[in-house]
Write a structure and sequence with these properties.
- The complex is a heterodimer.
- Chain A has a domain of 38 residues: Glu-tRNAGln amidotransferase C subunit, N-terminal domain (Histone, subunit A, Orthogonal Bundle), CATH 1.10.20.60.
- Chain A is built from three helices and three strands, in the order ααβαββ.
- Helix content of chain A is 37%, strand content 9%.
- In chain A, β2 and β3 form a beta hairpin.
- By secondary structure, chain B is of the alpha+beta class.
- Chain B has three domains: 292 residues, no CATH class; 114 residues, no CATH class; 58 residues, Orthogonal Bundle (Arc Repressor Mutant, subunit A), CATH 1.10.10.
- Chain B is built from 15 helices and 18 strands.
- In chain B, strands 1, 3, 7, 8, 9, 12, 13, 14, 15 and 16 form a ten-stranded mixed β-sheet that branches. In chain B, strands 6-5-17 form a three-stranded antiparallel β-sheet, with no helix packed on it.
- The longest helix of chain B has 20 residues.
- The radius of gyration of chain B is 30 Å and the shape is elongated.
- The chains are: A alpha+beta, B alpha+beta.
- The interface between A and B is large, with 39 and 60 residues.
């Protein structure tokens, strides 16, 4: 099953990846192969198999509602490419009215 | 008046009243300097692992039980994937396939056609747990038109989302729904519901259709609603907008609108990051939750009587009017105060008047919560006892109450100290009546001539002489006797 260029564009947009035409071509092939493999898996009879939500056979891992110390502001912003007023600074996301 | 039927659905987000966040130990606080309540988990650092807060599940279960939703005893978290700067992991941990609660309903009061109050059930489609996102501010608000600033203190605060069916048919019904939901959440102590702090948030979706049409019209979501008033005003504006479009033969676009308080209009939300393809999948970092009956029993045991049930009980058990019962159950603290005052003294009607009128009136005037009332329930009860046993008149009681409210002292002490006790001594009152009759020959003459009103003037004279302390029934009786 070959993905259309539009489908590849959509996937790269969702993943926020910017691909060169060559990379896009390669991704299209690889993604198509992965989908083909799932087509193959679909042939298995899973009629009586419970869907797997988690691979670990345990439930209810919970913590008591207690606070713990947080990071210092300095540590929080240490890796931020840009910050201002103690906040992470990013390109504007909501357009001007 | 309009030829279109209004169809409204509501999504409610309530931040839960926990100490710590949903998946980490950072404090759950609404107001703090930016990024001071964050850690590797809620910042989505690689290698960090979320661990679910037990209390948040319990609070969510309370809500699910209160609204009679079906509980999914096996429930899981999923990742809702999208990119937005206030979402540090680029996914939100949420629920979709096996939400904690499914279905259920909220019973609201609506005005029926005959003006009588009727009960309407607004269906719920689901109740699910998720984590809150961070907060961002944009452009001019931060003095930089090209930037947004992000604070992650809110990221990871446990959030309960309650999604209604499109069952509301007017703005009034939507308002009743919001008020009811808020009241129940407050009773359950699930959220502090402070809308001004964003602890409780509403999103409305609204569509119009010609009366009689089966299928729904195109719905528009309205966001940025931080008060009940904003919901009401934005719905009114949006309904007007859609009506105009339909009237002119146009089509309503499916979109998200933002309420703009300043202009009083809804404006299309324009985001650069919109791509609604969330690709939910089971959250591999969190194991499933199994809810057994023992757990449910524990949650049930911690649930209070809900406002509607308590209101009905106040009417049947205490003989209160629907109106009084509503006021006295408006909050859990008021209802508890009232019942504490009733303890060991069975005069529910008088006590309800004192709580609903005098006490709440004074508290509201001073912007105080009933928890901070200077008059304790037992003190109010003792004041009512003094009226009932004839020690003081109702009028004097209000004076005494004022003193109690200011000083927090017992009624009996104030009555004794100020000599406010009622005069019920026959000979004393007789003597005063005699003086008043002698001083008001005109009134006496008029009364004997058939003017009933003159009698009231004479009673007033006696009351004035005694500063309101004379037993009114005795005054009436003795005056009549002396005048005949």
């Amino acid at each position: 099953m070959r993905l259309t260029p539009e489908e590849v564009d959509h996937i790269t947009l969702l993943a926020r990846l910017e691909l060169s035409p060559a990379e896009r071509e390669r991704a299209a092939g690889e993604l198509s192969q992965i989908l083909d493999y799932f087509e193959q898996l679909k042939q298995l009879d899973t009629e009586n198999v419970e869907p797997t939500e988690h691979v670990l056979p345990i439930n209810n891992v919970l913590r008591v509602d207690e606070t713990r110390p947080c990071l210092s502001l300095e540590a929080v912003l240490q890796n931020a490419p840009e910050h201002a007023s103690g906040m992470f600074q990013v390109p504007r996301v909501v357009e001007a009215e | 008046m309009s030829k279109y039927e209004i169809v409204i659905g509501m999504e409610v987000h309530a931040e839960l009243l926990t100490e710590s966040k949903q998946f980490c130990g950072c404090a759950n606080v609404a107001v703090a300097p930016p990024n001071t309540h964050v850690c590797p988990v809620c910042l989505g650092f690689p290698g960090s692992l979320p661990v679910l807060n037990e209390k948040s599940v319990e609070l969510s279960l309370r809500t699910v039980l209160a609204f009679d939703s079906k509980i999914n005893k096996h429930t899981i978290f999923e990742r809702k994937n999208y990119f937005y700067p206030d979402l540090p992991k680029a996914y939100q941990i949420s629920q979709r396939l096996f939400t904690l609660g499914e279905g259920g309903c909220v019973e609201i009061d609506v005005a029926g056609q005959d003006g009588q109050v009727q009960t309407k059930r607004v269906g719920l489609s689901d109740v699910h747990m998720e984590e809150d996102t961070g907060k961002s501010q944009h452009g001019e608000a931060i003095g930089d038109p090209d930037s947004s600033l992000v604070d992650f203190n809110r990221a990871g605060i446990p959030l309960l989302e309650i999604v209604s069916a499109p069952d509301m048919r007017s703005i009034e019904e939507a308002e009743s729904y919001m008020a009811t939901l808020r009241q129940v959440l407050l009773y359950l102590e699930v959220s502090d519901c402070k809308m001004e702090l964003g602890r409780l948030r509403f999103e409305a979706s609204v569509s119009l259709r010609p009366f009689g049409q089966e299928e729904y019209g195109t719905r528009v979501e309205v966001k940025n609603l931080n008060s009940m008033k904003a919901v009401r005003d934005s719905l009114r504006a949006e309904i007007e907008r859609q009506t105009k479009i339909l009237d002119s033969g146009g089509k309503v676009q499916q979109q998200t609108m933002l309420w703009d308080e300043a202009s009083g209009t809804t404006q299309p939300m324009r985001s650069k990051e919109q791509a609604h393809d969330y690709r939910y999948f089971p959250e591999p970092d969190l194991v499933p939750i199994e809810i057994d009956n023992a757990w449910l029993d524990r949650v049930r045991a911690a649930m209070p009587e809900l406002p509607r049930a308590r209101r009905q009980r106040f009417q049947t058990d205490y003989g209160l009017s629907a109106y009084d019962a509503e006021i006295l159950t408006s909050t859990r603290d008021i209802a508890s105060y009232y019942e504490a005052a009733l303890e060991n003294y069975n005069n529910p009607k008088t006590i309800s008047n004192w709580v609903a009128n005098e006490l709440l009136g004074r508290l509201n005037a001073e912007n105080k919560d009933i928890i901070a009332s200077p008059v304790r329930p037992t003190q109010l009860r003792d004041l009512v006892k003094l009226i009932d046993d004839g020690t003081i008149s109702g009028k004097i009681a209000k004076e005494v109450f004022d003193e109690m409210f200011m000083e927090g002292r017992d009624a009996i002490l104030i009555v004794r100290e100020k000599g406010l006790g009622q005069i019920s001594d026959t000979s004393e009152i007789e003597a005063i009546c005699q003086r008043v009759i002698e001083a008001n020959p005109k009134a006496v003459e008029d009364y004997k001539g058939g003017k009933e009103r003159s009698f009231a003037a004479l009673v007033g004279g006696v009351m004035k002489e005694t500063r309101g302390r004379a037993n009114p029934a005795l005054v009436n009786e003795l005056l009549k006797k002396q005048l005949s």
